[in-house]
Amino acid sequence: MGAARGAGxxxxxxxxxxxxxxxxxxxxxxSVEAPNEEFAEAYAREQYGRRGESTALWIAPREALHEIEDxxxxxxxxxxxxxxxxxxxxxxxxxxxxxxxxxR
Amino acid sequence: xxAREQEFLTYVQEGGQVETDDWLPDEYRAKLIKFIEMHGNxxxxxVLPEREWILRAPTLQRKLALTAKVQDEVGHSxxxxxxxxxxxxxxxxxxxxxxxGKSKFHNVFHYPTKTWGDVGVIAWLVDAAAxxxxxxxxxxSYAPYARIMKKICWEESFHILHGRxxxxxxxxxIDEQRELVQEALxxxxxxxxxxxxxxxxxxxxxxxxxxxxxxxxxxxRQQFLDGxxxxxxxxxxxxxxxxxxxxxxxxxxxxxxxxxxxxxxxxGHGPKTAERLELRRTTREETAWVxxxxxxEAA
Lengths: 104, 299
Prior knowledge:
The complex is a heterodimer of chains A (104) and B (299).
Chain A: E1 12-19, E2 27-34, H1 37-48, E3 56-61, H2 87-103
Antiparallel strand pairs in A: 1-2, 1-3
Chain B: H1 3-13, H2 26-51, H3 60-87, H4 91-100, H5 116-135, H6 143-171, H7 175-194, H8 206-209, H9 217-233, E1 245-246, E2 252-253, H10 259-269, H11 273-286, H12 288-298
Antiparallel strand pairs in B: 1-2
């Protein structure tokens, strides 16, 4: 995203998110610079919606967005992820045990 | 080169992409700004030759299609200047540098359009050449630019169709119309062959080294020839280059493009350079009150 750089900026940077079809997730499309929300809406409609390529747009001032990009797993909590459950080896052993029990 | 810069270079050369907030080497930032700004300038200047034809287009449908194309291209320049702004150069400064001749725009937009045939050839072949360059930017190491190129390439695909339709319609008309297309092709072939730049090996091209673009100039030109020469020939048109042929190994041979002309034109000495920049300058002055009004109303 990035802090607003550059002198002489007259407006606010609004980030634009668009939804291509009903039910789909909104994805970041780009940004527009506008003096206020009304103009931001007009510019976003013009640049990201005029060909019917979007079913909806979200616009938000860049400053209002909070970015998180570090995901530290200090405690190694793998019990809420797929990689916390290596079942293959256990399943193999369980099958062997059941086989052996049936043979007795 | 310091270690951090070397690490960055290795990262982008392995296909890595970066965002606005990431640390960028100064040279990379400078190259990005230069490249992307020239692209923005070209979109903005590229509408001027076509704009001249809106009122002269042969049917209402064509007038509307051309107007829509002009709107698209100006929209592209808006999107692209936005990317440049986030890299640190304000749009007003881009426009100042464009008008003063300090920054450049593509060679093909420095030439006149003589007939409606030129409009068809521009929308078909100039846009085809451009879309080849632009598709090579979809993998750009600078992710915000790559993302915006997706939308731009999508819209350019309509423009090629529009151009091809104009050309096909004329080719199905009377002899005079076919002559207009052939004459336009003769005029545009030189600039088209210069369009992708001199055949500098890609590893010597800083724009490739930083992975701003993902292919070399000659690769782009070969791709253009391979895709479009057969389409030109099948309509019964002649490409004005007696040396043009496809070798058995698939490589196209052609007469060496006039690199002096390219250099002369893009440094501001094209036949229409001064006139078009003057139009940009006066238009900017005439519309200054709109920008002031917008800002005053918002304040």
